[in-house]
Hints:
By secondary structure, this protein is mainly alpha-helical. The chain has helices at residues 2-35, 37-53, 58-71, 75-97, 103-125, 128-159.
Amino acid sequence: MYKKLHLHLLFEVGVVIKGLHALLELVTAFVVYFLGSSALLFVTRISENELADDPNDIFMNLFVNQATHVFTSARGFVVIYLIVSAIINLILVGALLSNRLKAYPVSIGIVSLFVFYQMYRISITHSPWLTLFTLFDIAVMYLIYEEYKHQKGLREQAAAPIPSP
């Protein structure tokens, strides 16, 4: 019983985080699209002081490199990908939080497609951030599967005929 409650809580937290991440993807897409070079200039300015203090700062260098890539060479693709990904994830989050049984296997399938694509991108970019997001997605897929089994069992129990004495 404790394990099921614990997994259910982790499922809910994971799905809410996926929803927040989807909202962040939308905001990022609009920033990249509407601000473009202005946003890159802003990123460069906020990183100058940090990199002046420590030019070998791994996280700040990674952040600046990723931002430069997003705001320059891959801008159109990034905007479209982020918007499509965010909309799909928001729909899935809404369906999962409303406890629609069909949403569980559909979500696993769609998130699997994202994971496969992300793994392909990791093989090209070697992005640690993308690796972390992919590991999170895999963990969420596991939680969705466990929640699906639990919800399906509850519905089957409720539908089972009550034995007569």
